Structure formats: structure tokens, C-alpha cells
Amino acid sequence: MADITGRGAEEELLVEVQGRVRVVTLNRPGALNAANEALHGEIARIWHELDADPDVRAIVLTGAGKAFCAGGDLDLLDRMVRDTTLRDAIMTEAAEIVRAMTSVRVPIIAAVNGAAVGLGCSLAAMSDLVIVEEQAYFADPHVALGLVAADGGGLTWPLLTGLLRAKEFILLGDRLPAADALHLGVANRVVPTGTAVTAALELAARMASLPPQALRESKALLNRALQHAVSSGLTGGVAAETASFDEPAFQANLARLRGGRS
After folding, report:
1. Dihedral angle over CA of 184, 186, 192, 194, nearest 10
2. Do 174 and 166 touch, CB atoms closer than 8 A?
3. Is 218 helix (H, G, I), strand (E, B) or coil?
4. CA torsion sign, 153 to 159 to 163 to 165?
5. Disulfide-capable partner of 40 in 35, 129, 178, 234 (CB 3.0 to 4.6 Å)?
6. H or E element, residue 26
7. In terms of pTM, does the model score above 0.90?
8. Distance between CA atoms of 134 and 177, rounded to whole angstroms?
9. H-helix or E-strand containing 243?
10. Tens digit of pLDDT for each residue in 50-97?
């Protein structure tokens, strides 16, 4: 791919230019693209930058390496338990990610090239089309870990799967394999391993060639129910998730996952 806009390969998030398409890549492959403080901030910021670019007609979102996004970085979550200022800042960013992704004027196509867990699951659910590789899976373990599922899944999944299915997978946090995700409406297409970005770019090119005003306003119309869910539920949900960091159950589960690291 060509042109990486203003970022080097060492950066946590890359944006590549392909004509009127932008490819956004979460770039922490050694950590399965789990969001540390820097990556989380970039995810919150990038949608405004792209939305302000009049040349952008479609966006592809993917992850570097073997995973799409493994969720929140455990060390960051641990710092958020102890540092309430950092916690408030990250949760403000979390709300901004939801608001920005669900209001971007052009289509976002998720190329899910591996595990999409927690934040990764939410990023896919807030995209307009989802291409998932056959070995990949979705999981939202917020509740199982002890957090309120506020920043994405709790708002979007009922619209994608229906309320009963959403409750099952959000409340239990079970893995949803690619084929099941397609069946339940969490994904549009399942493709062979290693081909999600290629398939997403093909769809992005088709969308980028459509009349821009018709595409933009049709997407806005289709997203009205989602916008209502965001406007009515996000603020209270994020406040509840923020409070979850003080809960003993979450802190115990986080310590177990971190293996006793301080």
C-alpha cells in the first residue's frame, strides 16, 4: 500500500491512503493490538480527522498481525483502577469513540483479521460493514470481567442481532466464531484467512465510486436508530462503566488476568 499519512511504522495507529479510501490499522501486533493509552487516544482522534477530509469516500479498519484488537491493555486497566484522573480521561475517550464512529459521514468497513475482543468487538460492531476471516472470532467479556458493557456492544448489538441474542453474548461474554457471527448478523461476509483486507478494500472501492451525497445521506438515514441508542444510553452507560473500576469483582478479575503483576 502507498502513502502512510504522517505516521511511522513505530506508531500505534497507521493511516494509509489508497485513492479515496483510507486504511486505518491498529498497530500493536505484539500485544494483539490491545489498546494502551496512546492507541486509545489515537482511535478517539482519528475519526474526526478522516471525517474532515473531503477526499475520503470510505474507510477500512483492521489490525496489524494476527489479531484485530484484543481489547484494553491490562496494564492500562490496572492504572485506571488506581488513577481516577486517567480513568476519567480514558472513559471520556471511550464515549468519543462511540460518538465519532457512529457519526462518520462515509462508510467504515471492518476487516476483522483475527480476534475481536472487548474494544475490538465494539469497533467492529460500530462499523458499517464487517468482513471477518474464517479463523477469527468476536467476544465481549466486559460483564464477565466485571465492567458495564457501555462503550459499544451494549448499544449496538441489540440492533444487529436482536435483543435476546445480544443479551446472551454480552452478558455471558462467550466467543462467537466467524460463521456464527455471519448467521447472527454481526458480520456481512466470512472470507479465507489472510484475505479480509483485500475483500474490504474491494467493497471500499465500490462504495467510493458511488455518488457521494446519496451514499452519505443514505448512511445517515440507516443509522438513525443507532444514533438514538447512542444519544439515549451512552452517557449513563459510560458513567456506570467508570464506576465498575471501583468494584472488588473487577479488581480481583483484573489481578488474576495480570498474573499478580504489580
Report:
1. -160
2. no
3. helix
4. negative
5. 35
6. strand 21-26
7. yes
8. 8
9. helix 224-244
10. 999 999 999 999 999 999 999 999 999 999 999 999 999 999 999 999
